[in-house]
Amino acid sequence: xxxxxxxxxxxxxxxxxxxxxxxxxxxxxxxxxxxxxxxxxxxxxxxxxxxxxxxxxxxxxxxxxxxxxxxxxxxxxxxxxxxxxxxxxxxxxxxxxxxxxxxxxxxxxxxxxxxxxxxxxxxxxxxxxxxxxxxxxxxxxxxxxxxxxxxxxxxxxxxxxxxxxxxxxxxxxxxxxxxxxxxxxxxxxxxxxxxxxxxxxxxxxxxxxxxxxxxxxxxxxxxxxxxxxxxxxxxxxxxxxxxxxxxxxxxxxxxxxxxxxxxxxxxxxxxxxxxxxxxxxxxxxxxxxxxxxxxxxxxxxxxxxxxxxxxxxxxxxxxxxxxxxxxxxxxxxxxxxxxxxxxxxxxxxxxxxxxxxxxxxxxxxxxxxxxxxxxxxxxx
Length: 380
Fold this sequence. Notes:
Layout: H1 19-73, E1 89-90, E2 108-111, E3 120-125, E4 135-136, E5 152-154, E6 166-170, E7 177-181, E8 190-192, E9 215-220, E10 223-230, E11 235-242, E12 247-255, E13 257-266, E14 280-282, H2 289-293, E15 295-305, E16 319-320, E17 323-329, E18 334-335, E19 340-342, E20 346-352, E21 364-372, H3 374-379
Parallel strand pairs: 1-7, 14-18
Antiparallel strand pairs: 2-3, 3-10, 4-9, 5-8, 6-7, 6-9, 10-11, 11-12, 13-14, 13-15, 15-21, 16-17, 17-20, 19-20
């Protein structure tokens, strides 16, 4: 007898994962995922810290370079006549004073920040492309009270003097120096000065008479740069003077700069005709011509900060309770600024950074340099 087979046989019972096995598998998978996420997170954090640290180093180096480039030019055009250093500036633009205009003719001046706040650094020099050489005033001289003498300055040479150049009439570092504008190109033996109530030549100005032996300094359009820290953006900022509008405009140069400190490097034996070594640093701004002739260098320190906020407090070898230490050495004394002994026998100045509660969660780098005032030294 032939037996028939079912076309749909009952399959064997299928067996899957038990609930316990599924939970164990999920647990292992979750642990592996957590480990992978932590590794990637740590690697990404290290990458961001390294990248932001590199960016801060670049910003610090470029910021220091910008200041150094300007300070090296400080005094160009007028330091060649050292007797003019420190003279008070007299001027009038549209019959009024200019907000923020320098009060005296000096290559570099430092304004200290109160309570450890960042300093500001002002740099002045002539920006004439051609040579800016002082030229002597000759008889009959300039006299605002005499019509025939009030419209020009008789000079030994008008070489390089062009229309719209700003010129400074100087007697010495004690008397007032007067600023005016050439209203035409200098001609043989004369620098034209016509009245211009809408500009620098208000009628009757300069008010001081200048006789034989005084001289003119050609400032071109005048470079007047003020470097400071923008507290809003934490960037090195430069405020530049524009002679065309007689106004100042501020621009951020480099981000991530949170501190700026500067000191004068002084030579106690230097005069208009002698040179010598820098024998002290301080923050005291001179008030006399003799005092300015002793300023032969500027020492600058910048602190660059990374943009990466670190979860944990970041410390460094030179970190103290309120900031970082700036090693100023021990060979040359620092006067008027509190110092502490560090790195053996060196002296350190504290660069204050604790203006915010989270300051220790960032990484910092200190940049410093000593910049000679070469235009002052070369004349000597």
